[in-house]
Design a protein that fits this description.
By secondary structure, the protein is of the alpha/beta class. The chain contains three helices and four strands, in the order ααβαβββ. It has a four-stranded parallel β-sheet with strand order 1-2-3-4, covered by helices on one side. Helix 1 packs parallel to helix 3.
């Protein structure tokens, strides 16, 4: 799958990991779909190699723990799953939610 290959490529394309082992690289994934252990594992592996993985929780008003790659966040170091907040700093009505998510960011103008 091209998405998994792209995630796997991220650590190899991070020059700071090659030079000093400390990452200044971030990958932002704003995509979603059904649960995929392969995609979740690729995200966690990239994070374990030092790439900060930032994931959208999704826009289905559903539990993010049921979709990938959003469910890779929560307690995983270096993986951050982001929910959308509205102008009142409340969860946007369309934003996914759940224990797999970490933070809120502006998602509605």
């Amino acid at each position: 799958d091209n998405v998994i290959a792209g995630v796997a490529f991220a650590p190899a394309d991070c020059p700071s990991l090659q030079n000093n082992g400390r990452s200044r690289c971030t990958a932002n994934l704003s995509l979603g779909g059904g649960a995929s252990a392969a995609l979740d594992n690729a995200v966690k592996a990239a994070a374990d190699e030092g790439v900060s993985m930032i994931l959208a929780s999704g826009n289905s008003n559903a539990n993010a723990c049921n979709s990938s790659p959003a469910r890779a966040g929560g307690v995983t170091s270096n993986v951050i799953t982001v929910n959308a907040a509205d102008v009142r700093d409340a969860r946007a009505t369309f934003s996914n939610y759940g224990t797999c998510t970490d933070i809120f960011a502006p998602g509605v103008s």
